[in-house]
Amino acid sequence: MKNIVWHEHKITGKDKENQLKQTPCVLWFTGLSGSGKSTIAVELEKRLYEKGKFTVLLDGDNIRHGLCSDLGFSVEDRQENLRRVREAAKLFYDNAVITMVSFISPFAEDRQLARKLVGKDFIEIFINCNIKTCEKRDPKGLYKKARNGEIKGFTGIDQAYEEPESPEIKINSDQTTPEAAVEIIISYLVERKYI
Ligand SMILES: Nc1ncnc2c1ncn2[C@@H]1O[C@H](COP(=O)(O)OP(=O)(O)OP(=O)(O)O)[C@@H](O)[C@H]1O
Ligand SMILES: [Mg+2]
């Protein structure tokens, strides 16, 4: 970039990994609204905290209160939303943080861009749930509004959700409790020596 020069830091990500005694990764949750991304991510964060791990959870609704409060739900705004989020996730990851991202992230291309940016420690977690079940749960009453036409561009109703083809972890949240889902993720992280 013109007239912008990278300034080297004295403390590296590796130094911080040693300080925190942990191996960072990005746990990228994707799935329909109501599939259980936030519910599972919040439980996972609690488990990791109890294990002495330092984490950051970037959650869709919460990030839209601040960093992305200027964005809506058009295809373009969703893409910009995820561009900011993947850059934020990369910053935390580079600083040795176990980073969780729980956004619907409906488009394969955006998830692919996040995977490319983060590299080998990108772990895609597909929270797979039948849309009928999501609609029945409707924890925020959003499906009802989408069906009434009060919300436009709602994922799974009048906007696409592109299912991940080869996620590192797939959880069928209509058949698995949040506690069991957390166990699946913890086992994955232990097996691969992240924790
Ligand atoms: N097995 C399960 N796993 C996760 N959530 C479940 C499960 N069974 C029931 N639920 C309920 O389903 C709802 C999932 O809502 P949650 O807000 O976590 O979804 P979300 O994927 O984060 O949606 P959004 O994209 O709108 O933020 C919660 O009310 C949760 O209690
Ligand atoms: Mg959520």
Could you list some keywords that capture this structure?
binds adenosine-5'-triphosphate, Rossmann fold, 44% helix, 5-stranded parallel sheet, 8 helices
Please characterize this protein's 3D structure.
With 195 residues, this protein is an alpha/beta fold. It has a single domain, classed as Rossmann fold, CATH 3.40.50. It is built from 8 helices and 5 strands. It is globular, with a radius of gyration of 17 Å. The chain starts with 12 loop residues before the first helix and ends with a helix. The mean pLDDT is 97. Magnesium ion (MG) binds next to helix 2 and helix 3.
Rounded to the nearest angstrom, the radius of gyration is 17 Å
Class based on secondary structure composition and strand pairing: alpha/beta
What is the β-strand count? 5
**Overall structural domain count:** 1
Secondary-structure blueprint of this entry?
Elements: H1 13-20, E1 26-30, H2 37-50, E2 55-59, H3 60-63, H4 75-94, E3 98-102, H5 108-118, E4 122-128, H6 131-137, H7 142-148, E5 169-172, H8 178-191
Parallel strand pairs: 1-3, 1-4, 2-3, 4-5
Helix pairs in contact: 2-8, 4-5
The chain binds adenosine-5'-triphosphate and magnesium ion.
Adenosine-5'-triphosphate is lined by residues 31, 33-40, 60-61, 102, 104, 137, 139-140, 173, 176-178, 181.
